[in-house]
């Protein structure tokens, strides 16, 4: 089996809905990121076999095709848009990996893009002239309404069940912003400036005390969820360039080798369990050998529960901040995790620690240093995806 190698990874900044990217069409968010990945690797656009992008809100069509053409790729390069809600961006990368490992492609641009600002209004078409269109914010994620709770209500129930207090959530949100602020200078190298924005616009100096003054959005009492504990709706794009190992060798490119990729499901009303299941399966059931983790922060409650389930120390997770300090551009969020992971693993000052290295699920023995990195995310409807990579040496 051909091994897949990620040789470049770039993203835009993340801008809150109706913020700095409000006037930019979805495909125009992605195009400069695709071009940047090719430029970083020195790959001729004619060598690209496919463009695969995740997207959840653009309302149909083929955003990946539009983005590929806008990026200047040849007309002959096909493109595919995938929708697995929040998992979409990471799943697009995992699909690229699968195609390359199967020998069906040599070079694929993959990632995700989302614009909450430009997303079309959605409505259920009337059945007859006597009815009016019914507008909606989100589609159903399970056919049984009893298994399709409002995501925030589901998180509020989890907060009570797992005893994740509002005070604990405030600390998580503040820590995410603090890590992002501390990392701002080194995040520059992964961000493609666009519309004058070269940093994540939502990140700010947030303290637990300020967090506790924010309005409650779900739940009540000691376990209530406030606005700072929920990732804001946002616009962004992120992509990686995935090559077959032999092509990467011929071009003299390093980057990161894909070790494992997992998609799985859980009860629709408990999607956070799918993240944890996918992550543990990718890790062979043990996160102790993983040096860096990028775990989605859709809410502080979900993030706290995920860390507890994986048994990892916060110091190894989201070293440059997470979605609580950036925002949540649905179809792009998983790809942003992959971009962040790629750059964290290639940081020259990566803390080595004393973690135990284990053999991964596919039997690939990792090198004698803690260089494995994991990205994991859950999606509404009880879905989860995880990607395990390591630097090429």
TrEMBL record:
Residues 270-356 form the Thiolase C-terminal domain. Residues 5-243 form the Thiolase N-terminal domain. SUPFAM superfamilies: Thiolase-like. It holds the Pfam family Thiolase_N. The keyword Glycoprotein does not apply. The keyword DNA-binding does not apply. It comes from the Bacteria. Keywords: Acyltransferase, Transferase. Belongs to the thiolase-like superfamily. Thiolase family. This is Thiolase family protein.
């Amino acid at each position: 089996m051909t091994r897949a190698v990620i040789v470049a990874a770039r993203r835009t900044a993340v801008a809150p809905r109706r913020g700095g990217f409000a006037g930019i069409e979805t495909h125009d968010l992605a195009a400069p990121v695709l071009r940047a990945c090719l430029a970083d690797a020195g790959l001729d656009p004619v060598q690209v076999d496919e463009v695969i992008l995740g997207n959840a809100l653009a309302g149909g069509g083929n955003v990946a095709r539009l983005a590929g053409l806008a990026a200047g790729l040849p007309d002959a390069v096909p493109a595919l848009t995938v929708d697995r809600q929040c998992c979409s961006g990471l799943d697009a990368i995992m699909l690229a990996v699968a195609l390359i490992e199967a020998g069906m492609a040599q070079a694929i641009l993959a990632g995700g893009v989302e614009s909450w600002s430009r997303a079309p209004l959605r409505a259920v078409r009337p059945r007859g002239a006597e009815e009016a269109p019914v507008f909606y914010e989100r589609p159903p994620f399970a056919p049984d309404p009893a298994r399709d709770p409002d995501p925030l209500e589901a998180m509020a129930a989890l907060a009570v069940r797992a005893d994740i207090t509002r005070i604990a959530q405030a600390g998580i949100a503040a820590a995410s912003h603090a890590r992002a602020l501390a990392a701002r200078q080194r995040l520059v190298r992964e961000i493609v400036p666009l519309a004058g924005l070269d940093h994540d616009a939502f990140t700010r100096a947030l303290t637990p005390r300020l967090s506790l003054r924010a309005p409650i959005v779900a739940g009540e009492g000691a376990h209530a969820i406030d606005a700072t504990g929920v990732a804001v709706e946002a616009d962004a794009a992120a992509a990686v360039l995935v090559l077959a190992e032999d092509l990467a060798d011929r071009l003299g490119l390093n980057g990161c080798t894909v070790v494992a990729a997992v998609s799985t499901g859980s009860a629709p009303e408990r999607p956070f369990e799918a993240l944890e299941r996918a992550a543990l399966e990718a890790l062979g059931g043990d996160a102790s050998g993983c040096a860096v983790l990028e775990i989605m922060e859709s809410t502080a409650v979900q993030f706290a529960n995920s860390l507890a389930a994986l048994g990892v120390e916060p110091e190894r997770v989201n070293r440059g901040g997470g979605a609580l300090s950036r925002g949540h551009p649905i179809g792009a969020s998983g790809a942003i995790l992959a971009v962040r992971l790629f750059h964290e693993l290639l940081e020259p000052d990566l803390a080595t620690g004393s973690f135990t290295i284990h053999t991964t699920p596919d039997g690939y023995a990792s090198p004698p240093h803690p260089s494995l990195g994991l990205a994991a995310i859950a999606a509404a409807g009880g879905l989860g995806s995880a990607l395990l990579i390591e630097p090429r040496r």
